Each structure stands twice: as C-alpha cells, then as structure tokens.
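Following up on my earlier thread - several people asked me to post the actual chain instead of describing it. Fair enough. Here it is, all 330 residues.
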Amino acid sequence: MNSPIRLAELTFPQVNRLIHRTRLAFIHLDNLLAFAKRDRDGRVDGYLTAYLPDECLLMFFRKGEAVNAASLHTSGRQVTTITEALKRMRAEVERGEVAYCAAPMEQLAWMYHSCAVPVQPRVLDPDQPGAFFPVLKQEQVTGVVELISAGRVSYLRFDAGRFAGGYFCDKPEDVAVAKFLEVQFQRGADGRFPALSVVVFPPVAELPAQAPNALINTYRELYWRIVDEVEKEFPGEARRRAQKVCAGIVGTHKALAVLSVPRGAETPDAVVQPEELSSALMDWSLQLLEGVEIMMPGTAPKILKEATKEHRYVLQSAGFYGGLPWQVAW
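Reply from S.P.:
Thanks for posting it. Predicted structure:
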C-alpha cells in the first residue's frame, strides 16, 4: 500500500461480525461460499477479509454470493479474480487468518473501488489534524476519503467539500463523528502518533460483479463456434479473419483477449464483468459477419443461428441479438 500501515492490522467498518478473526485452517471455505444456497441466514451483504503473509485479500458478497475480490499488498492495491483469491487463501491455510463481516452495499462498493481505481494520496499533519478538513472544503473536494489510523479503516463521503456521511471502524453509536475523528489522530500510550494513511477516490454506488468462470467459458465456446461456422463458408479463411477483427478491437474490448484464447488452453486469469463479455462478442461478431455478408449476402443469420442455438437464452438475456442488424429466426 506504500504507507506505514501494516496489512495484518487492517480492520474495516462492519454492522455485524459473522465470523470473528480466526485461523484460516479452522474455516471451510467451500461451505462458507455455499452457505447462502443452503440457509436464508447466509444471504447477507458483506465481505471476507483474509490476512495472508504478504497481502490482505478482500472478497465481497451480495446476498451471500461472492461477486468480486481485491488485494491490498505492500506495493499497492488491485482487483483480482475470485478464483485467484481462493487459490491464494488455500495456499496459506496454515498461516492465514480470516474474518467475515456484514456491511452496507454502499460501503462494499467504496471498499472495492478503493482498489479498482487510482487513488489520490493526501498529506495529513497529525499535529494539526483539524486543518485537513477545511482544506477539503476549500478545494471543493467531491469523493470518498479513506482514513486509516492504526489499521482502522474509515470512509468519509464529501460533496463539494461538505461532509455527506460515511462508515467508521469501531465507532460507538453515542460518539459524534467529529469526536471519533479527533481520537484517530491522538498519540498512543507510548507518546507516538498512530500510523496514518489518507487517500481520496471517486464516489460510486454500485459494486460490480465478476463474470464466473462458467460464463466466461460459455462465451469462449460461442466465439469459436462462430469461427467454425464461418470456416464452413470460407474454408481456410475463418481463423485469419477472426484474428484480424479481434486484433483491431481488443483495445476497446479487453474481454476478447480471454474469448480468443485457443480451445484446449486454460482460461486466463482476468477480471471481466458479464456485460463486457456480451459487448465484446457482439462487436466482434458484427465486424466479422459484415465481411461475410459482403461476400455471401444472407449468410450471417444462418451462421449466428447454428453457432449460438445452444446458448441463445444466455445471449438473449444479455441483449446480444438486439445489437446486431440481422434477424435470427428460431
């Protein structure tokens, strides 16, 4: 995180500790992930914190279902796939620790985006903490301020420099926000100031969901089935045409880097949202099949029907066909 904060000390706001911090070896991760499917009590919004030797992993849950993950480590923060996060946890089951807490969805969105977007570090003088907030007002700052004091993470929302609410780690209900913040800057029993970190990032309200591996693999199969059908019309040309179109738009649709991986190869570890898969496949199909239509008019609907018929309901719900100029009759 490029700060004096120790990863092992990080504690985030919560409304209920479902699993207090304990050794990872004591927790059956698969049962935890499947809890919401077996019991209504498991359908909560919250986050799992995994304390590993070299990083702090966060896994975010919506109604008990894991939807995204992020990593905080000594060199920074980043979003990671749920699969990779679980892999790292299982690799450190003997040394790692874990906690599972419930939290509001807005807070989860802020926690996630603090790792997903560039954050702006702010300088804070612990001798004059009261001077920090007037500066935010003077600069008309709009965003979320992440304040970490001795490992306790709090989030404060500002709108044009005015405080507009937040989520605070271990703040008693009867303590005013101003008093709570004042305590965060006080010297400890040893006379030293707590390790402090302050960053600002844009406010968001939604926590995005990652596309599960099963959905990614479905779209990968659709990509290659379309190539197969084009190959029937243009023997020896389909793969070259597909790669050319892919290379031209992969900068816009990064999901194509995953979809175009050859059959038989493992799915690359990449964070992709479901709508990105549909958008990428649609744009690629449009450009590929427009070239086919020029050579053989009326062929595109036939190719689409044959290639996608087994997964047409997935594509229909994603709006795939609506973005193409051809009508596919089922």
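The mean pLDDT is 92. That should answer part of your original question.
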